[in-house]
Amino acid sequence: MATLLGIQLIITMIAINLIHRLSHIYSFARWTLCSTGLVRYLHPTDKELRQLSGLKKKDSKLSKRPIHAQNDNIDIFQIPKNLDIELESQPIQEHEIYQLRYFMEYQWLVNFSLYAALVYLSTEIYSYYSPIDNEINLSMLWCSIVIVFAFKILMSLTLEYFRGGFESSGERSTVIVAACVHLVIAMIILVIDESKLDVRLDTAYRSFNETSTAFLNNHGLSSQGPASKLIVKFFLALWCAVTGAMFVFPGIRTAKMHWDCLRYYECNEVHGKYFSYSSTFIKGFMNFSLITHFLLVLLWVKPIAVDLLTAKNLSGLNKPLMTLEQFESLRCWLVVLVVFQRLYLMPTFMQAYLNMAHERLEQQKKEAGRITNKDLQKQVSVIFYYTCVVVLQYVIPLVMMLFFIFFYKTLGNFSWVEVIVNSSPTIDNSNQHSLLEANQAYFSIQSLKQVLTADVYRGIFGFATWWICFSWFLSLSVGIFYQSYLSPK
Hints:
It comes from Acyrthosiphon pisum. By secondary structure, the protein is mostly helical. The chain has 19 helices and four strands. The strands form two sheets. It has a two-stranded antiparallel ribbon with strand order 1-3. Strands 2-4 form a two-stranded antiparallel sheet. Helix 6 packs antiparallel against helix 16 and helix 10 packs across helix 19. The longest helix is centred in the middle third of the chain and has 43 residues. The protein starts with a helix and ends with a helix. 31% of the residues are buried.
């Protein structure tokens, strides 16, 4: 086993040992919530509400009644909605985050994603100097675990809307409509010719059809070929619909935080709390980070990006700006840079979400009527209680983009340094598409690679990466449109 896997087994064992030893000492997930300057708002106590509303203290004789009676110990009273309440704030403490919903899932996903990225980076550095063509790439196993767990958490968050009662009917309808819309869009995209969209699914299907048929025939098995192209694309469309439905509320939530961040810096600029240049720069950077998602979508559109940079001679040049291999390397790097750009902005977005507690209270002051003390306290504290749900909705699409591009680069046999150094990887097509030896009666690594060629991986993970980028941008766009034109101001 060690001979087969070589240095990769050592890298994996070191990573597992680090997870075992450091998980109780240091957690990157805890650091993102407790050490990035996030501030939460504390709900007012019953005593403070009584003093502000001028109510008398609860009669101590009533508190001596037997506690077996329901609600005897609950002090509920009503206060005016327009009561002048100032919320206290404090930095998020480490002992407070363990009670948050979905915190353990967030901690596991973020920490394991970090270790998986380190394993992948170590393996890529090793494979650059010593190719691992005849070995199993264990870093792909780590990336697979991250992708599966991210899908599982996102599915759990989406199913919460279906477990709720009547009050969640609107959310359920939105998810169902989003799934139908994404299904129609995916079906339209899957019938587009490859000369328009560089997803290479048709090339992947032809390659898999040829190699799988040859593989089965050389093992004495009759074969009519794999499933028809229509069936394959139908199941891909279903996957696209499910993914788009799961992205709709994370996209709307992220758009709401983006909108609140811009409004926050505009208000600070008006009141002079920050320099105008600083506010303008931050707002410009945030808007640019939103536009970069659209640029990622365009990277797979052939007439706009691929042909323009790799096939056409620009004015003043006698050859294309870059080769196809250099463009693939640039595409991988741009996806990684966009992901890290959005992760860098995460504390700003999360603080905008936590500020909703103060904004809701300020909005309530404009309303007439009365509210109970428990409802007001719940209105403030529920924002912090769902912090991990919101941060998961922000992080999961970025994690999926990052690790799908890892799959696309590695299994598609591309290079990270091709955009800088012209050292394009060579693919032995004769070895990939050659027939298996007649006397080979077992499934080996080489025979598996002869079936699942680089063309197959490029088609599968190229389309998956592009669809994740597209559906995430579409969800963000819907959220921005809602906040701009439909949301009550």
